[in-house]
Design a protein that fits this description.
The chain is α+β, with helices and mostly antiparallel strands. The chain has three helices and six strands, in the order H-E-E-E-H-E-H-E-E.
Length: 131
């Protein structure tokens, strides 16, 4: 599978998310030319000021945690360089493709230079809820 096909598959998954399914949120970062997603559980890694929470630990690398923290902070601050991927749910394949192409064109996203921001695939989060 080519890198472009991988990007299009990832983007299709993002577009096919139901509006009421919030376990994973999909975005495009114009600053970094990168698609990325945030798991809802990732928010538990940070306190209300978006500093690393004292009662949470993770197997994410320092680099991944820093990137995640930066992106969540930018999402919370409504950074105009962070675009939410539209959540269209399950609709006809042609319509999804049309909406994806419109999103890519409208935002001048060049699939030849864009990447997907990945965190460690088997990252775990531990939260102490007894205190």
């Amino acid at each position: 599978m080519t890198s472009k096909e991988i990007l299009l598959n990832w983007l299709t998954i993002g577009f096919q998310q139901s509006a009421d399914r919030l376990s994973e949120l999909f975005y495009y970062d114009k600053r970094d030319d990168q698609f990325f997603s945030v798991l809802v559980t990732d928010y538990f890694l940070f306190d209300d000021e978006l500093n690393l929470a004292k009662d949470a630990t993770s197997t994410y690398s320092e680099k991944s945690l820093g990137s995640l923290q930066d992106r969540i902070r930018r999402i919370e601050n409504k950074d105009l360089d962070i675009l939410a991927i539209p959540r269209l749910g399950q609709m006809e394949e042609r319509e999804i493709q049309r909406q994806m192409n419109l999103f890519l064109q409208t935002n001048n996203i060049d699939l030849d230079i864009v990447t997907i921001g990945e965190t460690e695939g088997n990252g775990t989060i531990t939260i102490n809820v007894t205190e």
